[in-house]
Structure formats: C-alpha cells, structure tokens
C-alpha cells in the first residue's frame, strides 16, 4: 500500500514523492513555507520556497537564509509533483499550498481567513480531494462580526479615551494583526505611536502594502506627546515597564479569544475587541464544503470536536498532531527564533 501524498511526520508535513516538507517544525533539506508566523516559518532549513511577498518577512525574522519566491497560482514542479501557492487571507504573503501528483490534489491551508480585510490578498478557494485545515476557532461559539463594525467600535473607543485625556494602548500581534489595525484606524482622531516590535515589522511591510504614518516610541518620547493618541503594541508589552510612561492610559486587545466570556478580565485588559485573522466556525464549514474535498484533516485548534462534527456531516475526517499553535503563538511572531518559547 502506497503512502499518502502528504504524511505527518516528526519533522513536519512531508511529501515523499518530492522530498519536501510543508512548514516543517524541525530543520529539513527542502521547506515550502505558507507564511511568516513563528510556528510555520522556522530557522534551520537548508532551502526555503514561499510566496514572494513573504520573503522579506522570513528574512527579517530568520536572517540570511536560502530562499526563493513564487507568484500566486504559479506552478512549480519538484520530482514530478506540482506545487502552487494560493492566497490564504491570513496575513500579508500567507498562502495555501496546493499539491498535485498523478491526478490527486491536496491543499494545505496553513492559517487562513475568508473575510477580505482590505490589506491581505483575499482568500482564494481551491478545489481539491483532501483538505488540511486549521481549526483554531473550531467551536460554534466563535462567530465573527463584520470587521467594519469592530473597527467602528475601536475608533469610537479611541475618540472617547481622547476626550478624557487618556492614551489608548491597543495590543495586537506584531506581524499581521498590528498592520490590520493600522490600516483601519481613523487617523482623524489622532496620531498613531508604535512599540519597536510593531514598528520594525511595519517597516518591512510598507513597500508591500499601504499603511498610515506611525511614530516609534523611544526613550525620548514624552508622556505629553502620547496623551489622547493611539499606541499599538504586542501583547507581551502588557504589564511591562515600557508601558508605564503611558499613564494615564486605557488598554484594549484585538483577538478572537475576546469572544470568550472572562477573557478580558483574565488578561487584565480594559476593553476587548473580537477580531481574528483566522476563520470562525461557520467560515470553516463553508470553506470545507466549497472545496469539494471528501477527506478532511484537522490540525491545531479544537481538532477533536471539529473533526467529529465533520464526520457527522458525512466527511472522511481525522485529526493530525502538529506543532502549529494558531493565534496562541503569534504573540512572539517577530522575535528571533532562538528566543521563542514554543
């Protein structure tokens, strides 16, 4: 009996026919990378292939690596196996990876969302036989509001804080979420200041996407400059000595986990905004149905619950263990690989 086209191994998702790995979590010879977050793009591989928009992100995070880029939909062949990248809509440069061999088609999604955020290349549906899907938010309780409604709330919150003479500090992952926030903040309210991790990654992405002006917070930045304005910072900055110069400030977090009752209180955050770069429950189901796939492999997230539900719907569904962590790992997505605690 032949091995499946893609196998889940101790090093990552392996295509034996091509001798390549998709988003390996241990160093390998040949790696095809879906996107730049730390749990999918790791240091130590000999050769990297990714979408060309993801190259500056990978180089910023990992340093000088041997990497080549491809365009959306461009087919490249490795040992008679056809590969191509298709927009995943997760963050800038994020891809689904289509794999075809002898008439059999698999799609590995990496992380994805189907709502067009106005910043990332919108998700593209790819028909396939086997679909490898994340299910970070694979519970019926997760249902996202349209992002415009969320950003209306964020901008109103900022304006209210400004009227009270307070600085707004909004936490979002430095790669992806921070730039999505920047894209949709109402700059007529005030200026936008950034933590160093956010500013560094934003500068990497400015040649690729259109973003508003930002001001890096330095040791010379005065508290009076920040009052009434917006500060974008990674979640790791919360509770740090860095944030003390913001007083008086109000904190907010933009995350899908804010949908959980009590999440804001547990994180000691003043305001929670439900905004995720992953699919909610219904978007996952709609996408799976639209692919036409009969076999579904569920990774990272609520895999057991989600795969069981898919089986009840008649799919040939199963779970596979990976070292991908979805939105849990993105807090450190900009940090050097050697310092990450995963």
TrEMBL record:
InterPro entries: MBL (IPR050698), RibonucZ/Hydroxyglut_hydro (IPR036866), Xnuc_lig_assoc (IPR026360)
GO MF term set: exonuclease activity; ligase activity; RNA endonuclease activity
Record's keyword annotation contains Hydrolase: yes
Start and end residues of each stretch annotated as Disordered: 323-342
Keyword Ligase: yes
Record's keyword terms, sorted: Exonuclease, Hydrolase, Ligase, Nuclease
Protein's name in the database: Ligase-associated DNA damage response exonuclease
Source organism per UniProt: Flagellimonas chongwuensis
Lineage: Bacteria, Pseudomonadati, Bacteroidota, Flavobacteriia, Flavobacteriales
């Amino acid at each position: 009996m032949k091995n499946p086209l893609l196998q889940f191994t101790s090093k990552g998702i392996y295509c034996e026919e091509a001798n390549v790995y998709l988003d390996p979590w241990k160093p390998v010879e040949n790696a095809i990378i879906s996107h730049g977050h730390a749990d999918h793009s790791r240091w130590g591989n000999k050769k990297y292939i990714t979408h060309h928009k993801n190259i500056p992100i990978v180089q910023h995070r990992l340093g000088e690596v041997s990497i080549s880029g491809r365009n959306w939909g461009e087919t490249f062949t490795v040992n008679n196996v056809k590969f191509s990248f298709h927009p995943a809509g997760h963050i800038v440069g994020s891809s689904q990876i289509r794999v075809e061999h002898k008439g059999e088609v698999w799609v590995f999604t990496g992380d994805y969302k189907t709502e067009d955020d106005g910043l990332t290349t919108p998700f593209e549906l790819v028909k396939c036989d086997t679909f490898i899907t994340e299910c970070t938010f694979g519970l019926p309780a997760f249902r996202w509001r349209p992002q415009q409604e969320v950003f209306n709330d964020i901008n109103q919150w900022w304006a209210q804080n400004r009227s009270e003479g307070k600085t707004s500090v909004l936490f979002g992952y430095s790669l992806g979420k921070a730039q999505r926030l920047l894209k949709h903040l109402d700059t007529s309210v005030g200026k936008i200041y950034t933590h160093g991790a956010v500013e560094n990654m934003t500068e990497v992405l400015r040649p690729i996407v259109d973003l508003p002006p930002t001001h890096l917070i330095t040791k010379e930045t005065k508290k009076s400059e920040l009052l009434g304005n917006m500060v974008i910072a990674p979640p790791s900055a919360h509770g740090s000595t860095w944030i003390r110069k913001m007083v008086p400030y109000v904190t907010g977090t933009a995350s899908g986990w804010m949908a959980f009752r009590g999440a804001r209180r547990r994180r000691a955050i003043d305001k929670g905004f439900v905004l995720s770069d992953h699919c909610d429950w219904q978007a996952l189901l709609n996408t799976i149905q639209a692919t036409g796939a009969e076999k579904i492999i569920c990774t990272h997230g609520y895999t057991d619950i989600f795969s069981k539900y898919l089986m009840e719907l008649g799919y040939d569904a199963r779970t596979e263990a990976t070292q991908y962590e979805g939105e849990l790992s993105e807090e450190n997505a900009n940090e050097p690989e050697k310092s990450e605690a995963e």
